[in-house]
Amino acid sequence: MFRIGIGNDTHRLVEGRPLVLGGVLVPSDRGGEGHSDADALLHAMTDALLGALCEGDIGVHFPDNDPQWKDVHSSELLSRVVWLAHERGLHVVNVDATIMLERPHLRPYMLSMRENIAEILAVELPCVSVKAKTGEGLDAVGQGLAVSAQAVILLES
Ligand SMILES: [Zn+2]
C-alpha cells in the first residue's frame, strides 16, 4: 500500500532569531519567528507525513500553547511522526521539498539539510530532494519578510 501526503509551512522572518532549515543553522541576520526553532522545512515535512497518515496536522499533535513543545527541535517532532508511521508498518519511500527564501542562498547548506532529513526519515540520501527558490522580489518571501516550505512525501507498507 502507498500513502502520499503534502505539507507547507511559513514563518515570518525577524531580526535576532536563528534561521534553521532542515535542522541546519543558516547564517543570516534574520530568522524564523515562532514556537520551537521555526524550521519551516521540517514543519512542512512533518505535516506531509501526518497527511500521508491521515492524522491531522502539526498543531494537533504539538500544540504551540503547550510548554512541552516550546523551543523543542523540529527534528524531534518529525522523528516522533516517523515513529508513528513505522508503528503502522509504513516507511518513507521518498520526499521532495521546496524552500522559498529570498536570501541567503541555500546551496552551500543543501547537502547538510538532506543528510539530516535522510537520517530522521531513515532513508538513503537519494530519497531526499530539497530545492530552493526565491520570491523574485514580489510577495512576502520576495520582500525578505518570510520563509516558506512545501513538501510531498510518499510512504509504502
Ligand atoms: Zn512552522
Topology record:
Elements: E1 2-15, E2 19-21, E3 24-26, E4 30-32, H1 40-52, H2 58-61, H3 74-87, E5 91-100, H4 107-121, E6 128-133, E7 146-156
Parallel strand pairs: 5-6
Antiparallel strand pairs: 1-4, 1-7, 2-3, 5-7
Describe it:
The protein is α+β, with helices and mostly antiparallel strands and 157 residues long. The chain has 4 helices and 7 strands; from the N terminus they run E-E-E-E-H-H-H-E-H-E-E. It has helices spanning 40-52, 58-61, 74-87, 107-121, and strands at residues 2-15, 19-21, 24-26, 30-32, 91-100, 128-133, 146-156. The chain has a 5-stranded mixed sheet with strand order 4-1-7-5-6. Helix 1 (40-52) runs parallel beside helix 3 (74-87). The longest helix has 15 residues, at 107-121. It is globular, with a radius of gyration of 15 Å. 41% of the residues are buried. The protein binds zinc ion.
Measured as a percent range, the helix fraction is: 25-40%
Mass-distribution shape: globular
Please provide the ordered H/E string of secondary-structure elements: EEEEHHHEHEE
Tally of strands: 7
Rg measurement, Å: 15 Å
Percent strand equals 25-35%
Low-pLDDT windows of residues? none
Number of distinct helices: 4
Query: Which hetero ligands occur in this complex?
Result: zinc ion
Mean pLDDT: 95
- Note the main sheet: 5 strands, mixed
Task: Report the structural category.
Answer: alpha+beta
- Strand order in the sheet with the most strands: 4-1-7-5-6
Query: Termini separation (Å)?
Result: 5 Å
